[in-house]
Amino acid sequence: MFVDRSDAGQKLAAKLTGYRDVRPVVLALPRGGVPVAYEIATALQAPLDLLFVRKIGVPWQPELAAAAVADVGGREIVRNERVISLTDLSDDYIEEQARLELKEIARRRDVYCEGRPMMNLAGRTVIVVDDGIATGSTVRAALRAVRRAVPAKIVLAVPVAPSETLADLEKEADAICCLESSDDFGAISQFYLSFRQLDDEEIVDLIGRARSQESVGAPKSERK
Question: Considering the entire predicted model, what is its pTM?
């Protein structure tokens, strides 16, 4: 059980200290992944950026993911064929929703990052962070999108996840750091004492604080 997302991030950071010397990039899935990733980026003295992924839900059950879309220099759609088949969703529906979600991704990057493009990931060790994993469709889309950017290594870091989902994700990441996994997995929130919703202002504040720390901690040749 974690007190909150910051507590989970601090505990994950303690397991990731071996990556400090390779100067990794930490990517957070907003909103919930940002406080977790902030603690990791702070501990590793690493830059923090956002990795936007949007779920495509079933129309009459939005929390049930039929697919997910991410954009890292090109869109990546991950389909949950089982859900699509059971709900009889059309390819046209998935494509149309993907276009809408990509527009929302652009809007959120403008709000959270003031329109700054994602940093260059080529040749870097990239640590992808969320506050937990349920079905894995969102994280899978995120990892595949990051792979497009040709990083040297992809590390998935999450506090909690179902054992089966982690096994499925092993082929998507080069390494996985997960503090709690279970075969009997209900909801991510059950592992947290506090799992409140975060607002845009909190995300913007954390990103700003991370950028300030990055500027101070970076070698003089990398400061802007």
Answer: 0.88
